[in-house]
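ugh ok fine here u go
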Amino acid sequence: MTNSVPSLLVREHAILLNLGSLRAIAMRDRVLIFDYNRRGGRAFVDTLMPRLNPRSMNGGPSMPFELEAVESALISRIQRLEQRLMDIEPRVQALLEVLPNRLTADILEELRISKQRLVELGSRAGALRQMLLDLLEDPHEIRRICIMGRNCTLRRGDDDLECTLPSDKLIAEEEEEEIEMLLENYLQRCESCHGQAERLLGSAKEMEDSIAVNLSSRRLEVSRFELLLQVGTFCVAVGALIAGIFGMNLRSYLEEQASAFWLTTGGIIIGAAVAFFLMYSYLSRRKIF
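structure:
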């Protein structure tokens, strides 16, 4: 069994369970757990042990041990997914309230981590949901679970039950209905968890798009301001060039007149301002500003 895709495989005398970090073999009178010290194994044991206590049965009929093990595995797995969703949801809601008005590196990093966890949670819930759907759509596998440990077989062609004792057939049919109801119940819980994770993920993606638009708008404003500074710098540089020309030691006869300095200075300033506004008007007509 791989550790990536959830699976429930029915064999003649055992049920192989692979639910994330829980890998186990459930039989009529025992269950073997691989890596029982992992989180999934401990959660499975904590769920299974109270169900085996006769005091917790309230006098009602008990399911076969292997079905108790299967249900405990599903309960522990879905409860862990639901707990992760309950931990992530408030954080995502808080981020959606402060964004996009408050853009800081810490908040953006927290949004990225929350989105990554939602993707992982949605993927795991979706894989478990698909496993339950496949099992519900395959009545042959469900009937194989029901006849485990009994003198019953499945007739080829129509999968009808054939049992040595009529009571075994009646019990197997009742267990089949019970298993289907059990799987449908956990399928609904799994779909609810998967749907909520997908909704939160969709909201996070929409917020990312809004943040991207906001950042693009800010970058555009900065680019416009930089272009405005470059235009102003160019006009001032032209004025400085003219001033440098007059600053050479070549005689131009303007230095003999007292008003020439002020006229030249005023002309440079006015010319630079006129050139700036002309270039600004041109860029505005081109819709660059």
